[in-house]
Amino acid sequence: MDIQTGDVLTMKKKHPCGCDRWQVLRTGADFRLRCLGCGREVMGERRKFEKQIRQIRRPEGAPGPEGR
């Protein structure tokens, strides 16, 4: 799955604050994500987060997978 820093992920389950959108701060074997509702940052295994993703949104002007 092609996930880049700056992408906004919509997850299947909501955060306790009620928001289901997260911004990607760091990628690699682990992800660092920031909740767009309350600003809480979490870090966890890539495999765990990839199972929970419903949608990936790229910021305007950011290169896609074909732009590398």
Descriptive terms for the model:
68 residues; mainly beta
Task: Write a compact overview of the structure shown.
The protein is mainly β and 68 residues long. The chain has one domain.
Main beta sheet, described?
5 strands, antiparallel
| Global outline | globular
Q: Which strand order spans the largest sheet, edge to edge or round the barrel? A: 4-3-2-1-5
Radius of gyration: 12 Å
The number of helical segments is: 1
Which structural class fits the helix and strand makeup? mainly beta
β-strand percent reads: 35-45%
Low-confidence stretches: none
What is the overall pLDDT average? 91
In total, the number of domains comes to 1
CA-CA gap between termini: 15 Å
Strand element count? 5
* Helix content percent band: 10-25%
How is this fold's topology laid out?
Layout: E1 8-11, E2 21-26, E3 30-35, E4 41-45, H1 46-52, E5 53-57
Antiparallel strand pairs: 1-2, 1-5, 2-3, 3-4
Can you give a write-up of this model?
The chain has 68 residues and is mainly β. The two termini are 15 Å apart. The chain has one helix at residues 46-52, and strands at 8-11, 21-26, 30-35, 41-45, 53-57. The model has no long low-confidence stretch (mean pLDDT 91). The protein contains one helix and five strands; from the N terminus they run ββββαβ. It has one domain.
